[in-house]
Each structure stands twice: as structure tokens, then as C-alpha cells.
Please model this.
Amino acid sequence: MKKIFITIVPIVLVIVIIIIIANKNPKIEVTKEIENTNSLQSTTSAVSPEPQMPDTSVSATSKEVSFTVNGGNFYFKPNIIKAKLGDVVSLKFKNDEGFHNLIIDEFKVATQNIKSGAEETITFTASKKGSFEYYCSVGTHRQMGMKGTLIVE
Model:
């Protein structure tokens, strides 16, 4: 009987330890799952159910902005101009010397090729955010540095 007792007691102890360990880990995991679910609920309750896309439409507060850009052999001054999204941009190109034009592809606007002393105004809505190159397309003027940047914020 003593032999059986010595054999059974360690086995029972091992089983009890395994049960205790097995019960402790699920409780910890369940607690963690509840905490994660609660934090997820509190996080998602502040988030709108539909993803929001950035508003790129022209706002009712659009304003007209005017710029004068002078051009010559092989420059634009200024070579950086800035507008806000939705602004109506009026851009006067004055040709100081030579034979040039001014083009902004992304807004599909361009002046005619004009000779020295002439000027032309183009008007468009800054309907996209970003940096857009304006340039002269006559000959290799663009490659020779006759370009600038319109920044729409």
C-alpha cells in the first residue's frame, strides 16, 4: 500500500500542477482579450464608420490671385509662385526679350508664342494640390532653364 501511495501522490501532484497552470494561462489570455476588445471599442467609437476622402473640390471661399511672370532668354521671374487650392489664378506673362510662351500642362493652359514686349494673361482654377512646372515650349528653351514652379497648397 505504501508503494502505491508513493507512486500515486507524485502523479496526482503533477496533474494538479498541470491543471493549475492550464487554468492560469487561459484566464490571463481572456483578460488580455477583454482589455484589447475594450481598447479597440474605445478607439473605434471615435472613428467614423466610413473612410473620409480628402476634399479636393473648389470651396466657396475661393479667391482670385494675380501674378505677373516676366520671361526672357532663358528665364522666368519669379520662377516660383504659390496659390491655394480653389484659387482662381490670373497669370500675366510679359515677354522681356526673344520669342516665348508659358505653359502649365496639368491645368491645360498656355499663352500664345509672343514676341519681345508683348504680354498675355491666362486664367484657370487651381483645382489640384501639388507642384506644377510652367515652362516655355519654344525650341529647347525649357531644357535651357526656362521653367518655373507653381505650388498649390
Observations:
- The longest strand covers residues 64-72.
- The CA atoms of residues 22 and 81 lie 69 Å apart.
- Residues 1-52 form one domain.
- The chain is about 30% helix and 35% strand.
